[in-house]
Design brief:
The protein is an alpha/beta fold and about 350 residues long. The chain folds into 2 domains: about 140 residues, 3-Layer(aba) Sandwich (Rossmann fold); about 130 residues, Dihydrodipicolinate Reductase, domain 2 (2-Layer Sandwich), CATH 3.30.360. It is built from 11 helices and 14 strands. The structure holds nicotinamide-adenine-dinucleotide. Nicotinamide-adenine-dinucleotide (NAD) binds next to helix 1 and helix 4. Keywords: Oxidoreductase.
Length: about 350
């Protein structure tokens, strides 16, 4: 974690922010910014000016729009940006903002590839600006409750996530080489790190595309991670699985020496153990609104938040290691993935869709 410049914010003097990317998730962020009294929407940026204009009109607000975040920030006095562009634009948009002295709250993934994300971590260090990745599911209060249960289970043997849904997005996901692993599984991978307070060591993964899939790339995957505490984290998922769909958070089971914990992803987690959860504080935040609050608080206090780019890199590395294992058919160690990401040119790693 690196030290970063602080910025004040208060209800009387809210932080002016730009939303960059006015697509479907950008609209959700615009609503979150509009609802947060500690921030003020200073403008909306999108290379598709119609998208920006329509999004602003739908908000019922009158703020400047533009195609270049740094230029709009200079014109409007915005002090920070929320980057909700397509993954391929995360690197150029975030890098330009950091270099212009603007802290960034970015949608996941940090960048298209781990090499690009490592580069952004370096730019954050060099510029002294905060770059936080919004892994919004981390702030789910039920994930906090599940983690307290897991801590009460003693040593953990296995963690599994089952994720089965059938969304028809259109757009960039339909064209990605690994839509499920690259665009979706990062949420579960990141949550597994949080639940176990352990880091992945290696992974074996297979991915495939069912005959009926409407995705160009592999909509199905199965991955087993060896974690640093000896547990195995197993992820099984599909993005073209109609019927009996799981929640968007997937279904979780954690099996430990003192019992098990189970979560359907939507309701309160359940504990099957004689040992109570550890007494831990509940999550004070939730979802992307929570990520925004955390970002603003971090800027005010200078305390590095969860999701700060250095802390987030491992979640993207899990994605990239899983993709590499699926491509090669052999186990991949996370250390090797990081070594290659630091050596490779930033646009040539395997995980880009
Ligand atoms: N946290 C979640 O649950 C969640 C859910 C959905 C999407 N996402 C993430 O949010 C991001 C956006 O996804 P989406 O579904 O809104 O995509 P989208 O395609 O609907 O919208 C992306 C927008 O970015 C704009 N854009 C592209 N390049 C740009 C650039 N250089 N500068 C400015 N604007 C640019 C596009 O014109 C488009 O309007 C992705 O990173 C995605 O993974 C996260």
């Amino acid at each position: 974690m690196n030290a970063f410049a602080t910025l004040p914010s208060s209800v009387d003097d809210p932080l002016p922010v730009l939303c960059v990317g006015a697509g479907s998730m950008g609209r959700a962020w615009l609503a979150a910014v509009q609802a947060d009294p500690l921030v003020r929407l200073a403008g909306v940026v999108d290379i598709d000016q119609d998208a920006a204009r329509t999004a602003v009109a739908d908000l019922g607000m009158d703020v400047p729009i533009g195609a270049d975040a740094v230029a709009v920030a200079a014109a409007t006095g915005a002090r920070a940006i929320v980057n909700v562009t397509v993954p391929a634009a995360h690197l150029p948009v975030t890098m330009a903002a950091l270099r212009a002295g603007l802290p960034v709250l970015g949608e996941k993934p940090a960048a298209s590839t781990l090499a690009e994300a490592v580069r952004l971590a370096t730019v954050a260090e060099q510029t002294g600006q905060l770059f936080m990745v919004s892994q919004s599911r981390r702030w789910n209060p039920r994930v906090f409750a599940l983690r307290a249960m897991v801590e009460g289970l003693g040593a953990v043997g296995s963690v599994t996530t089952e994720f089965f849904r059938a969304p028809r997005f259109g757009g960039f996901r339909d064209q990605m080489r690994q839509p499920l692993l690259v665009d979706m599984a990062i949420h579960s991978f990141d949550t597994a790190r949080f639940l176990l307070a352990a880091e992945p060591v290696s992974v074996t993964c297979q991915s495939w595309n069912p005959s009926w899939s409407w995705y160009r790339g592999d909509a199905n995957a199965s991955a087993v991670f060896e974690m640093s505490d000896g547990a195995r984290y197993t992820y099984v998922g599909s993005w073209c699985a109609a019927g009996a769909e799981t929640s968007w958070n997937g279904t979780w089971r954690i099996s430990g020496e003192k019992g098990s914990a189970h979560w359907d992803g939507d309701h309160d987690p359940e504990l099957a153990s004689d040992h109570p959860p550890l007494d831990r504080p509940a999550s004070p935040y939730s979802g992307i609104a929570g990520a925004l609050q955390v970002f603003v608080e971090a800027l005010r206090t200078g305390v590095a938040p969860m999701g700060e780019i250095h802390e987030n890199l491992m979640s993207l590395a899990m994605v990239e290691a899983a993709v590499e294992s699926a491509d090669t058919g052999v186990a991949v160690t996370l250390a090797d993935v990081f070594t290659r990401a630091r050596e490779l040119p930033p646009t040539s790693t395997a995980a880009s869709g």
